[in-house]
Design brief:
With 117 residues, the chain is mainly beta. A hairpin with a 2-residue loop joins strand 4 and strand 5. It is globular and about 45 Å long. The chain starts with a helix and ends with a strand.
Length: 117
């Protein structure tokens, strides 16, 4: 066998049992041992370290969807509170994070338009 180390790595990765956080419809979250289905925002976690594998944005970015923002790793992800205002031009949301030092994400019609931290 020419590449035994590569084969060993592939087997170890398959046996690692990584798990996935799947977010759909902007807020529905489920955890699974297999990758998320189409339409869900996926974050893969290492089963040994319990840390997310870095595969996408790690911080909020202007223009990302609400689903992408909910899939961000700690300390972002799921907000502590959501303040919603509906107007004739659409829906505005303020996502509130933190207890002492407040941080905010602002969405217009489901798209991140401002960050305050």
């Amino acid at each position: 066998m020419r590449y035994p180390f590569l084969l060993l790595m592939l087997v170890a990765n398959a046996a690692s049992g990584n798990y996935y956080k799947c977010v759909s419809d902007g807020y529905k979250t489920r955890w699974d041992g297999k990758p998320c289905v189409a339409g869900e925002v996926q974050t893969e976690y290492d089963s040994r370290t319990k840390q997310p594998l870095i595969t996408g944005p790690q911080r909020p970015e202007i223009g990302m969807s609400a689903e992408q923002a909910r899939a961000l790793p700690h300390p972002w992800g799921e907000p502590k509170d959501v303040n919603r205002t509906t107007t004739a031009s659409g829906v505005n949301e303020q996502w509130v994070y933190g207890e002492r030092s407040r941080r905010y994400l602002y969405f217009t019609n489901g798209i991140l338009t401002a960050i305050s931290d």
